[in-house]
Amino acid sequence: MDGRPDVRTNTSPIRLYVIENIVISSDLGWGYNSVERARQLPTKMRSAIRFAMLALVLVIVAMLSALTAMRFAIHGQEVAVPPLVGLGPTEAERAVAGLGLQISIERQYYSPQIPEGRIMSQLPLPGTKVRRGWQVRVAQSLGPTRVAIPDVTGQSEHAAELNIRRRGLDVASMAEVAAPGVPADQVLAQSPPANAAQVMAPKISLLVTTAGAPQAFVMPSFLGQPLGSVNRILQDSGFRLGNVTVAPPQSAPAADALATPSGAPAPQASPNAPPAQATPASIIVSQVPVPGQKVVAGTAVSFEVR
To answer: Is the Cβ–Cβ distance between 284 and 304 less than 8 Å?
Structure first.
């Protein structure tokens, strides 16, 4: 024999071959499905792996393309801010319009170095990278100072404002402060001061006095004191006398109501008698505000007297 094992059945021998570690039968009817499965299994795995790798590569390429496009989209719209200091408004507007930028004159200052009408400062600074459509804010020169700063201290707020605007100036800001001993609505200080030489802007800031908070007191007790003397004390302390009412008479004891010491009935008050009136000698029996309450100057104090 040729050294190969024979497997004999009832009909014919079946020869087995070993190819790449796979046992294949010579009988096609018995080993065909096994061979196909052996061949198809590695092929499907390789196809799946190849498909997954291809999908991963496509995703990476798409992400890199998106990042690159975004970078070009962002940086492609950026421009450098041109220098505008020393240019006139028309020249500056033309310079920024060519780059897709805008210009806004926000401030005006006096300057002995830069001629009137020229740009003296800008923001953002020259060379700064900004997006198209960005607004460049500039300050314009008014030239050398030609207006004398008036002295408005001691004037009222309204008079000072009229005096400032009549000279072609503006009120920059106005602050208020409570100054004891100084009337309210009076200019206490100004900036810049009167006749200042180095003035940057045609504006004056004012410090105006305002009415201070009223002085607080603790209400004393006036119970048992005559109304006349208490009224003088209130006037001297800066308070006002409020309503004064007379307390109703106290009811007499039952025994006194029935008879007098002599045995006669007690006299009854006439229903037509005029109501009692408060006099400077009337004694205070209650007060509003009550003793101990916090009050301010000018408060009205009301009393009930007998």
So the answer is: yes
> What contacts 81, CB < 8 A, 6 or more positions away?
96, 101, 122, 124, 125, 126, 127, 128, 129, 130, 134, 136
Q: Residue 133 — pLDDT band, cuts 50, 70, 90?
A: confident
CA separation for the pair 71, 66 (Å, rounded): 9
Token pair of 42, please? 């590695």
Q: Which amino acid is at 157?
A: E
Euclidean distance between CA atoms 178 and 124, whole angstroms: 41
Residue carrying structure tokens 């009301």: 302
Is beta strand 187-191 parallel, antiparallel or unpaired with respect to 216-218?
Answer: unpaired
* pTM for the predicted model, two decimal places: 0.38
What per-residue confidence (pLDDT) applies to 16? 45
Give kind and range of the element (H or E) at residue 172.
Answer: strand 170-178
> HSE (CB half, 13 Å, CA atoms) of 182?
17
Domains of the chain: 6-73 (no CATH), 79-141 (3.30.10.20), 157-210 (3.30.10), 214-249+275-306 (3.30.10.20)
| Cα→Cα distances 227→174, 274, 280, 295, Å | 48, 21, 5, 20
pLDDT at residue 30, as a whole number: 44
Rounded to the nearest 10°, the torsion over CA 219, 222, 228, 229 is -80
Per-residue pLDDT at 38: 54
Give the contacts of 297 (CB within 8 A, at least 6 positions apart).
214, 215, 217, 237, 238, 239
The full length of the chain comes to 306
Q: Which structure tokens are listed for 80?
A: 């450098």
Residue 133 CA: distances (Å) to CA of 46, 79, 129, 136: 54, 10, 12, 9
